[in-house]
Amino acid sequence: MKKALFSFVSLLLASALLLTACGKGKKARPEEARRAAGELTVGIAQDLDESLDPHYAVAAGTKEIMFNVFEGLMKPTPSGDLARCLASDVKKSEDGLTYTFTLRQNVAFHNGETMEAADVVWSIDRCRPNDGGEGLIPALSNIADVTGQGDTVTVTLKAADNDFLSYMTLAVLPEGYGEQATSPVGTGPFRFVSREAQHEIVLARFDDYWGEKPALSKVTCRVIENAEGLLMGLQSGALDLVSHLGSTQVKQLPEADFKIEEGTMNLVQALYLNNAVKPFDDIRVRQALCYAVDVQKLLDTAFDGYGSPIGSSMYPAFAKYFDESLTNRYPHDPAKAKELLAEAGYPDGFSMTITVPSNYQPHVDTAEVLADQLTEIGVNAELKPVEWSSWLSDVYADRKFESTVIGVDASNMTARALLERFVSTADDNFINYQNADYDALFEQATAAADDAEQTALYKEMEKNLTENAANVYLQDMADLVAVRKGVEGLTFYPMYVLDLSALGWAAAE
Amino acid sequence: MIRNKKRVPPGLAAGAAILLLFLLPTVLVPLVSGVDPNAMQAGAKLLPPAAGRWFGTDQFGRDIFVRVFVGAGATLSVAAATVLIGAFFGVLTGAVSGFFGGWADAVLMRLNDAVTAFPAVLLALVLMSLFSSGGAGRLILALGVVFIPGYARVTRGAVASVSARGYIAAARSQGVRRGRILFVHVLPNTLPSLLPALTIGFNNAVLAEAGMSYLGVGAAPPDASLGLMLSEAQGLLFSAPWYALIVCAALLIPVFGVGLIGAGLQRMGGEARA
């Protein structure tokens, strides 16, 4: 007994000593050391894909980081346009069928080799569905031929396609290099250093980069899978930057140490309605729901006021295609909503279910607030949380649902990526939208000869979706990024990327 | 030392008092508060406890005081219904197999073992996914099935031990029908061992309901349920620590009360037998 007491007391003493030691050691803060060395540690919520090969990467989170390692002939810009990257010049033939790229000189791969036309041809061939290729990008089936000679690469198309250049953002890789999955090599401003699964991935500045060299010498991306862990990492000094935080989370960070930057998630968040099932097959019911929902109040209630309201399947960052006037097509008007419901034969409202993916809290929260708002017009909405895999199979693939709250993104930087899915025959038309006008507009848009005409047609399509109340459009959710004070240069893109080359520490005061 | 066999152990009385004190507001608050537990208020989010909103508000500005008791009511009634289903079928199976023995015992108990072989949470999840809809009923059914084997085993043991007693043999020798012996002479005498098992089962059911809702497969938002509220509170641990504490307390208090009752019953049963 005495012995036990003794060991207990000594344990207490030892832990007390340890605590004071920690307190004293606090002087050398880890973030100060990183600042001096020009290094940065980023917290990410999920590990990257098992394969880092850019042509095979699936997860948005992988592309988000590896954007800094790989480059294509073209590169997306923060404004949503395409800029020349590994191609110093692009020429399009009169008939729109032939593109001639002039390659930038003296571009080095991270493994020391120099980029040549053969590498570009090999990379494109690898992605397109032809004999030798693996068909990773189905849209590239439009390519008839790719040839390279000296410093030019010529691509011939089967049919003119205004969106073709956006596919040329595909990563250019050294021909025949076989270890992209584990030790990726590209031409980007950062090179891959090391990776430890479920723990971290390390990138370093590429000193032979052809363009402006990044300010940061090393970036460590640490995988911390829960939001509380990310917050604690920021506060303890282990992390400098974390993207995709929620509004209640950023409120917990001390304002003295962190800036909160607000971008957009580039998602079309809506209450998606299955247009083929009753009562949503009636346009008046769909419009009634639009009038019943108060988007601003939704943002205030569930998102602390963050988020940008939208009125159609297009988000504001796509400035070229976004039509702001559609946002206020259905102002909050419960009286009008009730009137429409009565006309449609539901004077006392009805009951509906909202299927939500239970692992995406923002969507669950949104649905919860919507259900509350809909009670005002007598509609009794019941939430049905499902696993992500059942959401994908039941709702998205089998279309067995009444309504669902989800965010739809664009797979590439084209308006088509957002709008094509609502064409009657589209495979991914999960809301069963059937509208002959819409289909005709889409056909005209794809065939349009010039860009201005095409843009106008895409906007017509957006208007069609709004006027027919295809869905109850809500918002493009805010992408809140917590950045340590002193870190500058955070740039938002209309796609899911974190541009590390623009980031750097401000000169110390 | 001679003890009065009728005396109620102090633990049992304390447990009953705790449970009663908790049940009272659980029943009354939703009735008399006049506050809609699901009404959201954008301007009153995550407010700390104060007069008028004694437990503060949650991330949608809903009143936690009302929601905790509405949620506790939902959790406790699901637990009670679960125990009822589990106990009914469990006692029936256990009684038949303990009393008749032989092939009925062998078949029923192997079935029982088969169900026990699956981890409880996993089994409940599978059962939940079998029924596509049904809300709380689905949860009760799934958890009820999971709880059957436990009761069956306890009952079987108790029935077997009571059946071996002299007065049962006496009843048999007088030609009393076997069904009558089982229900009139055997089962009532197994209560001392069954009652504590019921209370333990009830507590397990409370935690199971909260656990399932916490995992997102039990109650569906916006309905209040302690498990659901706990999973919400977890993300707000730094900005609204009272939320998690209050929900945990609401979960622990009835469990503690029922636990004391169970322990008291066990002591009484033990004394009665001695």
List the SSEs and their pairings.
The complex is a heterodimer of chains A (509) and B (274).
Chain A: H1 2-24, H2 30-37, E1 39-44, H3 60-66, E2 74-76, E3 82-84, E4 87-92, E5 98-103, H4 117-127, E6 143-149, E7 152-157, H5 164-167, E8 190-196, E9 200-205, E10 218-223, H6 227-236, E11 241-245, H7 247-250, E12 258-264, E13 268-273, H8 283-292, H9 295-303, E14 308-309, H10 334-343, E15 351-357, H11 361-374, E16 380-386, H12 388-397, E17 403-408, H13 416-419, H14 436-447, H15 451-467, E18 471-476, E19 478-484, E20 487-488, E21 504-505
Parallel strand pairs in A: 1-10, 1-11, 15-16, 15-17
Antiparallel strand pairs in A: 2-3, 4-5, 5-7, 6-7, 8-9, 9-10, 11-19, 12-19, 13-17, 13-18, 14-18, 20-21
Helix pairs in contact in A: 8-10, 9-11, 14-15
Chain B: H1 10-32, H2 64-100, H3 102-117, H4 120-130, H5 136-163, H6 166-173, H7 178-186, H8 191-214, H9 226-234, H10 241-273
Helix pairs in contact in B: 1-2, 1-10, 2-3, 2-5, 2-8, 2-10, 3-5, 4-5, 5-8, 8-9, 8-10, 9-10
Give the name of the CATH architecture of chain B. Answer: Orthogonal Bundle
- Structural class call of chain A reads alpha+beta
Low-confidence region ranges of chain B: none
Order of helices and strands of chain B: HHHHHHHHHH
Give me the CATH architecture of the largest domain in chain A, please: Roll
Give the overall shape of chain A.
globular
CATH class of the largest domain in chain A: Alpha Beta
Strand content of chain B: under 5%
Tell me roughly what share of residues is in helical segments of chain A: 25-40%
Largest beta sheet of chain B, briefly? none
Distance between the termini of chain A: 59 Å
Q: What's the CATH topology name of the largest domain in chain A?
A: Dipeptide-binding Protein, domain 3
Helix tally of chain A?
15
Mean pLDDT, all residues of chain B: 87
**Superfamily (CATH H level) name of the largest domain in chain A:** Dipeptide-binding Protein, Domain 3
List the domain count of chain A as a whole number.
3
Extended strand count of chain B: 0
Strand content of chain A: 15-25%
At CATH level 3, the topology of chain B is MetI-like fold
